[in-house]
Design brief:
This protein has one domain: 434 Repressor (Amino-terminal Domain). The chain is globular. The longest helix has 16 residues. Helix 1 runs antiparallel to helix 5. The model has no long low-confidence stretch (mean pLDDT 87). The chain is built from five helices and no strands. The protein starts with a helix and ends with a helix. By secondary structure, it is mainly alpha-helical.
Length: 79
């Protein structure tokens, strides 16, 4: 189970990269960031900031459903 939203987003991005069969540089360009930044996010050394997440959702709108489901789950855990 994913407990952190940044982990969820990173896992989804890595899966999407594999699905599309794109190299790191091509995938980074697709989501609007540099290849070195993507490498840091992919390795877990840097979290995707809100600006990056917004860009990702524009490119992959289906991620919105996953993010909303995660937020609902977290909200249920607080109640």
């Amino acid at each position: 189970m994913v407990t952190d939203l940044t982990d969820l987003i990173t896992q989804k991005l890595k899966a999407k990269q594999r699905e599309l069969g794109l190299a790191d540089k091509a995938f980074a360009e697709k989501i609007g960031i540099s290849r070195p930044l993507w490498a840091l996010i992919k390795s877990g050394k840097r979290e995707p900031k809100l600006k990056i997440v917004k860009g990702v959702v524009r490119v992959f709108p289906e991620f919105t459903v996953d993010i909303m489901a995660w937020l609902r789950e977290q909200d249920r855990g607080r109640n």
